[in-house]
Amino acid sequence: MIAQDAALQPRPQMADWTVSEDGRVYTFHLRDGLKFHDGAEVTSADVVASIRRWAQKDAGGQVIFERTETLDAPDARTIVWTLQRPMPSMLAILSKQSSLPLFIMPARVAATPADEAITDYTGSGPFRLVTSEFQPGVSVTYEKFADYVPRPEPADGLAGGKVVHVDRVKWINMPDIQTAVGAISSGEIDYIDYIEQMPVDLLPLVEGDPNIIVENRANSEMQTMARMNFTHPPFDNPQIRKAALAAVSQAPVLAAIVGDQRYYRTCGAVLGCNTTYGSEDDSASLTEGNGLQYAKDLLKEAGYDGTPVVFLAPTDNASLATQPVTVAQMLRNAGFTVELQSMDWQTLVSRRASQAAPADGGWNMFVTNWMVIDIANPITNAMLNGNGNDAWFGWPDDEVIEALKANFTDTEAVEDRQKIGAQIQSHAIDNVLEVPLGQYTLPQARRATITDMIDAPTPVFWNLNKAE
């Protein structure tokens, strides 16, 4: 509905807006020419239905709705959103770029329960999914949507005019990275996605090729972290969660992912390092790697009985394949019994949604990555959702973190928010809402024939040109 520019500031996209003087009423006006890929016009009813579905799952959306008085569509082009009290983070949450962004879909699709996957992929953007060519695990094809009307202003980050200069974009899954490097070198493919694919140790194979450009994208740094399941032993015991955190050292994990210290750094901040609200308080064992004996002592005091830690490990995702193996060994060194279960990433995504006992198809731990820009605000950081069954996978029930976030949301001064950010850091580490494993960045590689690619954290394919 709205987007962020290169400076990560909210800008109009599908809608312009005004805000009342008291900061409580947001009025959005849909722009002309908006159509879904099935030819139907985008209406305010579609927008409201999409917002309501999104807010059931997104951490920031849940916070907004806790403060929502009404959300109405008085006519086909207008949305009026009234809050109980002002919320300074409102537009930042609505415009975030990844990790459950607010996509607008037809009301009929948005009627799908939020805990069920949609099966109708009708969108309204500059590209449409070619469903007849979709091959799960193999490739996804998009083609230019001829009826899309771009905004008039130039592209700026993910805001501005989304003008498409290519007819089709085809994403091809190549689990073997050396195959992908060979394909870009030969011109078989044009681009290797930095998020998943370009290991630093293979950079020498492409850096000397004048036909390939290797680059880091703006605001693309990632945080990798481990998430525990709070609902089953052994991690329903906070003492045992603390032991697991103390057992982990970030440096070996980062070295296994990236290998080159130029592209990673230890960082114990749950809100990210070098961010507005990030703090590394209470995280020295992670960054200095000196917590092993403390972990052993905690396990003994907690009376750990050897209950296996079922650790989900994806084998087909280059950016997530090494962390479980490294972390599992650290846990074993501290005295944990660890059952590392290998699977593809899509199976892991399905498995982590299960609240069954680990022995019955559930889980105790997995590792994931987030863009730092997505976790830098406690309201949008999914790891900091303490709403029990409505929280992100792992389902912590934590009234304290919710109260801290509420205080953050109602606070406008940056310096006061920074103080709350430090309190959130201490609480998150003490209760092990996540185990931060450090920050890293991976470059992307593209053929020199691809030009004018927008330098945004999320790779997008409008605006770019491809030479013959």
UniProtKB/TrEMBL annotation:
Gene3D superfamilies the record matches: Dipeptide-binding Protein, Domain 1, Dipeptide-binding Protein, Domain 3, Periplasmic binding protein-like II
Intracellular or extracellular location(s): Periplasm
Origin superkingdom: Bacteria
Family: Belongs to the bacterial solute-binding protein 5 family.
Protein name: Peptide/nickel transport system substrate-binding protein
Keyword Chaperone: no
Signal peptide: none
Source species: Paracoccus sulfuroxidans
UniProt KW keywords: Signal
PROSITE patterns: SBP_BACTERIAL_5
GO biological process, one term: peptide transport
